[in-house]
Amino acid sequence: MSDITELLPCPAPVQLLAADGTAVDPGEQALARGYAMPVPEDLLAVWRGMVVGRRFDAQATALTKQGRLAVYPSSRGQDACQVAPVLALAEQDWLFPTYRDSMALVTHGIDPVEVLTLLRGDWHCGYDPRATRTAPQCTPLATQAVHAAGAAHGLTRRGSDGLALCLIGDGATSEGDFHEGLNFAAVFEAPAVFLVQNNKYAISVPLAKQTKAPALAYKGVGYGVRSEQVDGNDPAAMLAVMRQAYAHARSGHGPVLVEAHTYRMEAHTNADDATRYRTADEVDEWTGQDPIVRLQAYLVQEGHLDDARIQEVRDEADALAADLRTRMNAEPTVEPLELFDHVYARPTPQLLEQREMVRSELDSHVTQQEMESAR
Amino acid sequence: MSPTTYAKALNTALRDALTEDPDVLVLGEDVGALGGVFRITDGLTRDFGEDRCVDTPLAEAGIAGFAVGLAMQGFRPVVEMQFDAFGYPAFEQVVSHIAKMRNRTRGALPMPITIRIPYAGGIGGVEHHCDSSEGYYVHTPGLHVVTPATPADAYSLLREAIASDDPVVFMEPKSQYYAKAELELPTRTEPIGQAVVRREGTDVTLVTYGPQVAAALKAAEVAAAEEDWDVEVVDLRSLVPFDDATVEASVRRTGRAVVLAEAQGFAGMGAEIAARVQERCFHSLAAPVLRVTGLDIPYPPPKLEHTHLPGIDRILDTIARLQWDDEPDLTHAPQEVSA
Predict the structure, then answer these.
(1) B2-183: CATH number
(2) Which fold has domain B196-320?
(3) A146, B104: Cβ pair inside 8 Å?
(4) How confident is the model at residue A1 (pLDDT cuts 50, 70, 90)?
(5) What is the SS3 assignment for B1?
(6) Which residues make Cβ contacts (< 8 Å) with residue A311, sequence separation at least 6?
(7) pTM score, two decimals?
(8) Given pLDDT bands bounded at 50, 70 and 90, which one contains residue A2?
């Protein structure tokens, strides 16, 4: 049994940068845990990732309004949570994202069109999960927590020092699988890191109706899981805290739970109306906490970033958005027979019969069209 | 040859799979030192280490989801749900992930997971220990569902299930755990997906599976001795994939079919079988396809389970309704209203 003080999160969310971009003293306990200000090169990488990521997110939202995506859950405002943890991963690590983590996947180097394949309304996840070491974006809430625990344990069994990063939302911490994931990871001492992006709402239900816990980070302690809470709109703190979490997990000390306090600036999805459950004042207040503004102010103040570089990265982001627009505007080809290809490794005779039925329907449809055009 | 129980056949199959493939792992509640509540994993932890036969926390969704993560890393987990009804907490993991992961990753993440479920009744179990839960799994695309009825099939199909790249729900009729057969292990019967004619007959086909195969064979003997009906018994062995060919061929020969399933009848596996038979064999049938099933009630307590289980009398009564005298079966005819 670990010493409980080792498991408990800092009493307040760890912060290295204030909202105006000035460096702040994170406090004795945070310093003792090694949460030091990252070096400028690393912060610049996070800043760049956020600028590009937010542009991607805005483009995806626009494409949804144009009918190119079936639905898009934006992560604008959570940019620091999306970018810093992913950039800190090592080559051998696995990522377990949800539907709100498209920005994280783009940051992870996955082709944006592949990332949006599922939300575009296709039947598969778009990318190759084995090549990218990234599980499909998970829609059923919290179920990926146990997958991450199992995969992390599997990595250790294979002799790898890889870990599994599980992204999860505040609402999902009420699901049983979240608890089973933490517990399994703890019992098997699996190198899994669970990052709760507490964006304050589960669709419309506020955190106060979700839990009576003093903070979601405290949910780890009961399972013997080292836990931490961090200002999720502080990119420097996000990077510092996640790195320590990874170091802990990677060195065989078992899982870590990190709660990032952040805010979902957009509605749940394009299909949601957030004005029904939250005020404009509240949203405005969080606008002042913007993670990109915060880090950019710090980097400019410290002389690590100038207007030329800012423009360069904006151009890079615009180019990514333009490319995404072009490729998403091309009508995707659909192949009905593909629906049968991967249901089984060894398809049942009954499924093959249905495939044959659809094939002949398609053939006769094609023949009909040919006859009509010949007329 | 020596007498081998169904339970021993399963234990040997797990042993042989663990020996042959280092990626095979056994996971579940009490599967370690205890050897499982039915002793199916007896001695595996002792002989292969607690790293290969692993006691997990008591959480079925966790067990199933953990297996998903392990399968992503190339392992072949064999998970045990302690009892049929205790498998329900894992339902979301089974239906939404184990069954669909291959499809939504276009084959990149196959789920070679075997989910062993001791199921059905006839053992005097208390509530939540005797459910026939196969209907939930057969209705889920992406899963194979098998249910061996004999020790030889228990060994062979478990080996096939573990070696399969598809997830297999492996349903073990508890009432058959101590059934014995003269058998030398290892043995192989047929691959997953093939039914077998357990008893040849000329008058009627009794299509059944799992816990009711033994009852069907007994009923067939009584029918031959007392009623002069020569009953053919088909043991499906695999519910998904379904062996239409063997069932069809048998019904065409006999011209009559009764479907026997222990599960509650409404909208169940029995209904699927009956529908398939009449779709394929309508012109060969001398009578409608009838079903003998469990009642549509929660599984009853031990003193009343004989009321629920199909049983030989109910099977024979149903066979008797197959219009032998070319007279219509009036069981479901509207009641005449007297003027």
Answers:
(1) 3.40.50.970
(2) Rossmann fold (3.40.50)
(3) no
(4) very low
(5) coil
(6) none
(7) 0.96
(8) low
